[in-house]
Amino acid sequence: MAFEGLADRLQSTIKKITGKGKVSEQDVKEMTREVRLALLEADVNFKVVKDLINRIKERAVGQEVMESLTPGQQVIKVVKEELTDLMGGEQSKIAVSDRPPTVIMMVGLQGAGKTTTTGKLANLLRKKYNRSPLLVACDVYRPAAIKQLETLGEQLDMPVFSLGTEVSPIDIAKQAIDKAKNEHHDYVIIDTAGRLHVDTDLMDELQQIKSTVVPDEIFLVVDSMTGQDAVNVAESFNEQLDISGVVLTKLDGDTRGGAALSIKAVTGKPIKFAGMGEKLDQLEAFHPERMASRILGMGDVLSLIEKAQTSVNEKQAKELEEKMRTMSFTFDDFLEQMGQVRKMGPLDELISMLPGANKMKGLKNAQIDEKQIVHVEAIIQSMTKKERQDPSLMNASRKKRIAKGSGTNVSQVNRLLKQFDDMKKMMKQMTNMQKGKKGKGMKF
Ligand code: GDP
């Protein structure tokens, strides 16, 4: 999962302070020292860390914490808010031009994931926002790059505009926009050339394309596995092109990844999307608050729900969230969700979004077992309506009946009941945490 090492360390640090009914300055000092080390070890830029720690310290020994009834949890709240701010605060939206097409220029070094992200972004725009993008191949130096985009276009069943390698990228971009206007594409996504390093020729060309097509967005695609280099690259591109946002790729990798957290602080430009895998549907809108929550082990139920509900409307997603919050989530809801599970993506990715998931070692690298899903579905289907609403009804003889009806055995039924119960407990912990309740709210 993204930022796994950092998450592990931060979670064990904050665990120590969470339940405290009293927090001394010494406690805060120790905690911030550990947070500082965790961030540095994760490769977050040292200046950024220093500022962040100072802000946390100042707030953690301030009134909002010391005078609260739950100082331990208030400190964590402060850490979460500061981490959220560090990554950009509010989630930033993608531009929509009032005179279509909206033009997005993708820039970045070779190998960062630019072409792949161009395809992913087009896919997301169509799937989530019902848009009709035109992809444009402007990397005239590498025929393979043009071919790669065309292949992505075929996979997505989306048009790709290319004029081969003999026409200048500036002309290609210009003609692509005319074509998009004629054919009523509301987005144009331009895949530009990359180099192994930032160089003047490349920047000149990108600047020319920029002044010709006047893009609504310039997204810099950055490989989060490249550590501090990612930050330097972001700085140079931003100086030369005044980018509008960053796409972090390869956040699914198991690198330290912390450098990426510095990008917003260093460039002032928001991270708009995160690449979470090689597949075309593995691009997520970047929500700083949700990411902070994931890093601190508080889970990311909202993203999880969104994933589950790509084909369902917002109202249903909200209802589900409400059910999770109020603990009225039943086996019926569970069953309904099961149908969506297969569409949602790898199980380990989903699990990483659950509160406290980092600590559930057994769940890491879990393999999704199709047979087991079928069993679970069968077990729930063998329950009566009442049982699904109220699992406590299920006594020994009912369990036997359910096992028989579903072609499983009682221990499988028990296991499912236990898992469901654990899941509810986890949700409860998270809800308590959000409410800032005192006591054993957050356990890791
Ligand atoms: P470009 O040179 O910047 O256009 O980079 P490509 O789009 O060709 O990507 C380079 C490599 O990174 C390819 O093998 C992609 O499959 C891979 N890649 C891109 N984005 C991601 C991501 O989010 N996660 C992972 N694991 N791989 C990615």
Automatic annotation (TrEMBL):
GO molecular function (one): GTP binding
Coiled-coil annotated spans: none
Pfam assignment, any one: SRP_SPB
PANTHER family membership: SIGNAL RECOGNITION PARTICLE 54K PROTEIN SRP54 (PTHR11564), SIGNAL RECOGNITION PARTICLE SUBUNIT SRP54 (PTHR11564:SF5)
Protein name: Signal recognition particle protein
Lineage: Bacteria, Bacillati, Bacillota, Bacilli, Bacillales
Stretches for region Disordered: 385-408
Compartment(s): Cytoplasm
Main localization of the protein described in the UniProt heading: cytoplasm
Gene: ffh
